[in-house]
Amino acid sequence: MRVKFWGVRGSIPTPGRLTEKYGGNTACVEIREKKNRVILDGGTGIRELGLTLVKEMPSETALLFSHTHWDHIQGLPFFQPFFTKGCTFRVFAPSILKTRVEAILTQQMEQNVFPVPFAALSSKILFESLPEEGLQYGDLHISFFELNHPGKAFGYRISNGEETVVYATDNEIHRAKHKKAFKRTIKAVRGADFFIADAQYSSEEYLRNRVGWGHSTYEEAMAAAREAGVKKLALFHHDPMSDDITLGKRERSLRKKYRDISLFFARDGMAVDVASH
Ligand SMILES: [Zn+2]
Ligand SMILES: [Zn+2]
Q1: Which end of the chain is more exposed for a tag (fewer CB within 10 A), N or C?
Q2: pLDDT 10s digits, 16-62
Q3: 3-class SS of residue 31
Q4: Distance 231 CA to ligand 2 centre (A)
């Protein structure tokens, strides 16, 4: 499986010189396994992904959303494949989220905020329920689990039978303050080869005034990854206030501190080949 990060920033895009190394696009990750393609979230990173996708026509893509907060949907009105005949999208979502995604995608293209209505898109977009037990999509098995986030969000476990990737962003876990969520996450992530985890804050930032905001710290993401036996960890959903210098320093110090796990801060444009262990 190949994972590509198209957007790694949380909350709001952060273009400019201070963030050019890690990137300023909001959440969007692509997973490819042979002919199967899955896109996770539609933050601003999805615009650039769309430019490559329209070159591969006709195409079918599975689309999964963690939830419908702006930073996870705001790139979609500028996602060229949506406007292109021959592109098919299958949106798989737990039933509560399915209704929400359908409504929000239409709302964010209403005339007062966007010139082209959702109903006028030329691609085929199908909304399908993702059952509790998950489903088989080509060579990939996709299942979901609940995250700890205001308004509810979902994580996804995607496996080709040999390698497993878990995507869990917008998830507040903490060994002392959110024990249940921490345990639930470990259970869902257990044995994964690659874990993409919400890690928006340092512990100091979190404890200062961000408890209950729905995001985790580097340390808690690390602790969950270790307990779940994960070998490779991508810290994701970087805070808009964290510039390249800050992230670089923190990444270096975490890598020095935790040598038993391969960890890195995700960057826009970065591709990772997932190997089983
Ligand atoms: Zn977010
Ligand atoms: Zn959110």
Answers
A1: C
A2: 999 999 999 999 999 999 999 999 999 999 999 999 999 998 999 99
A3: strand
A4: 26
| Homologous superfamily, domain 2-273 | Ribonuclease Z/Hydroxyacylglutathione hydrolase-like (3.60.15.10)
* 4 CA from centroid of ligand 1 (Å): 18
Q: Report the distance separating Cα 26 and Cα 140, nearest Å.
A: 25
Residue 64 β-bridge partners: 40
> What are the extents of the domains in the chain?
2-273
Q: What sections of the chain are H helices per DSSP?
A: 45-53, 95-107, 179-189, 203-209, 218-227, 244-257
Q: Is the Cβ–Cβ distance between 173 and 181 less than 8 Å?
A: yes
- Distance in Å, CA 12 to ligand 1 centroid: 8
Beta bridge partners of 153: 147
Q: Which two tokens stand for residue 140?
A: 């990939």
